[in-house]
Queue: 2 jobs
Job 1
Amino acid sequence: MHPTPFFSDLRKAYEAELHDLSFDSDGKHVLKKHLAERRKELPFLVQMMAASPEMVSVVFHQAFRFVRPEAMHQLLATESESFPAWDALGAALALEPWAQPLADAVLKEAEGEWLLAVAAGLEFMHSHPSARPARSGDDDTDGDNEDADKPEGDEEPEDADEREAREQEAAGQAWMESQGFDRKE
């Protein structure tokens, strides 16, 4: 399964957004609380659908039940300007009852159907490891990992973005520690 670059890139931002919402400054897991707050902000957030769809999509975290995974794989392989109508995705997924009012609010917006398709695709990728894109240079589509037998010393060099994110995280933790906060493990 090969998601489009749109979904591959946006997945990283979505995962980062979920991670940011997951913990408070004390390291306590507060995802449920932060998602509830974000959902209340939906009238404001819809203004950011085109510029930052991941920020709006997180309000639909755990809002979908995927009944036809093959249709979701097809969505992930579709270019963002060619997504099917929201009604057409109805056979592939179901919304949790609590999410229906949120979806109704989003559907009132010009780009609402597009955003719901994006949210469903991102959530599918988040909750189904088989839907995640293969690593760069990995054309292995049957799930076998040829590198699994390599000794640890032969790992691929890390991605520059991953290295930068790790360095920023370490710098942030060092700063927080210098301000008197306990180090987050």
Note: Residues 55 and 180 are 31 Å apart (CA to CA).
Job 2
Amino acid sequence: MKPVAIFRHTSREGPGYITRFLDKRQIPWEVIAVDAGDAVPQDASAYSGLVFMGGPMSVNDDLPWIPEVLAVIRDAFAKDIPLLGHCLGGQLISKALGATVSRNPVKEIGWGEVRVSDNDIARSWFGDNRKFAAFHWHGETFTLPQGAIHLLSGVYCANQAYAIGKHLAMQCHVEMTAEMIAVWCAAGADEVESDSASPAVQSQEEIQQQTKDNLPRLNSVAEQLYGHWILGLSA
């Protein structure tokens, strides 16, 4: 099988739980570290699927690699090679497919409930899950591209996930591990403090307290989502 390409945009926001998932199933993968200067491939057909992780930048920033990433997303979409986006990754997929990425009404940081949409496509992705606590760290949001089916919503962000066929884009983070949460909290302490007035921003203490209860369920949701996504991987 061709490897799954995992695009990393900052060293702190690596693949997390998805590599554990792929390793257990002996699915090959490789990280394309855009933040470290790795070249963005022009042809998606070298990979069985493309995964895009998060990052603190905006898809609307004037960064040299963003047009290259948008181009390979469009190439994969045209070739029906599965796309999977987490937070910034979901926004990149959205912009590449003609949707708009703009400021969310409030910043979301920490644990927050999301609800699964009442449609058959959402149930095929999420199984028996109807709501769960997702992890959030974002200030922007996307609209839905043409042909997208809404999958998840939250109180502070209406578009938390959508699917187009075998492609999945998420605003929230399902890839989290305990180690990632600890690193993000340490690195983002100033951001948490400066945005503490937002009703959707938790303190570091609240995040850590809720991680013990929420993370196992989030890992279970990730298993369900990734399990459905790999059904579309090309040989």
Note: DSSP finds seven helices and nine strands in the chain.
